[in-house]
Write a structure and sequence with these properties.
Elements (H helix, E strand, L loop, with lengths): L3 H15 L7 E5 L2 E4 L1 H8 L7 E4 L5 H12 L5 E3 L1 H4 L2 H12 L2 E4 L2 E4 L1 H25 L2 E6 L17 E2 L2 H10 L20 E4 L12 E2 L7 E3 H10 L5 H10 L2 H14 L4
Parallel strand pairs: 3-4, 3-7, 7-9, 9-11
Antiparallel strand pairs: 1-2, 5-6, 8-10
Helix pairs in contact: 1-3, 5-6, 6-7
Length: 270
């Protein structure tokens, strides 16, 4: 059982990295404006360069994701929890805007320059999106928590043709993961072949609404029930890379992922 303090520590460490001292990223000035080094900022936000699993999910499922990540850390498997970065990007945006955007205090509220806030948001979101894509490409395994929080709109409900997510981050991660094709692993193996990615199902309560609904691109991901995945995480005796191999072999994920990728590659372009 994962106690609350461990989950909170995991979350707080990520937040502290994302909203670190801005002075650490300033490399000079041009036209009396501080210049923030994006490379240095991304290195601080993404310190774990060798995560074996990239975990994509709704921010509302963060606790379950962190509990899952902590259980795998005990098995020697490193997990990158995406929302522990983008979940706090709003804090980073506010910090940058307080330093550099024109502002006006009206009563209990502070209004910032619309144009400058947009400029800051565009820069940080593009940087974050690119780094998330890089980490998906570098990770051995991609797991998506398919819950009612992450995909609240189902096509059969008549709202839209196909499932929809209200999160632009989930949309971006799934869409990019569909472009990362199967490639063989070169590490030491547990005595079988290799695999790429999978999708995990969990059932949760739906929340809220949003202005934009994004197409869910997840046909390329083999499906695995969430309870099965949790049980495997707790009971499989192997550790590190071999834990991943045990997962792949137990559910023939390699063949499923490779087959889905090949089928998708053969689909005609609309």
């Amino acid at each position: 059982m994962i106690i609350g303090s461990a989950v909170n520590n995991f979350r707080d460490q990520a937040r502290d990295v994302v909203v670190n001292d801005l002075a650490d990223y300033v490399i000079g000035q041009i036209d009396n404006k501080d210049i923030i080094d994006v490379k240095e900022l991304t290195l601080r936000i993404f310190p774990q360069q060798d995560a074996q699993i990239f975990l994509s999910r709704s921010h509302r499922d963060e606790r379950k994701a962190i509990e899952f990540a902590l259980s795998l850390e005990k098995r020697g498997v490193s997990v990158f929890v995406d929302s522990c970065v983008w979940g706090y990007v709003g804090d980073l945006l506010l910090k940058v805007n307080k330093h550099y955007s024109d502002s006006e205090v009206v009563g209990d509220f502070t209004n910032f320059s619309y144009e400058k806030c947009n400029e800051v948001a565009a820069s940080l979101y593009l940087m974050l999106n690119e780094e998330l894509h890089r980490m998906i490409d570098a990770a051995e395994c991609f797991i998506f928590f398919n819950t009612k929080n992450s995909i609240p709109i189902k096509g059969h409900e008549g709202f839209a043709e196909g499932d929809r997510t209200l999160s632009p981050w989930i949309y971006s991660e799934l869409a990019f993961s569909a472009k990362v094709r199967y490639r063989p692993l070169v590490r030491k193996r547990l005595r079988r072949k290799i695999v790429g990615a999978m999708e995990s199902y969990l059932v949760e309560k739906a929340f809220g609404s949003a202005s934009f609904a994004f197409e869910v691109v997840n046909e390329h991901l083999p499906k695995l029930d969430g309870s099965t995945l949790r049980t495997l995480a707790q009971t499989t005796p192997e550790t590190g890379d071999f834990w991943l191999d045990a997962l792949y072999y137990a559910y023939e994920l390699e063949a499923k992922f490779k087959g889905l990728c090949e089928a998708r590659a053969l689909e005609p372009i609309a």
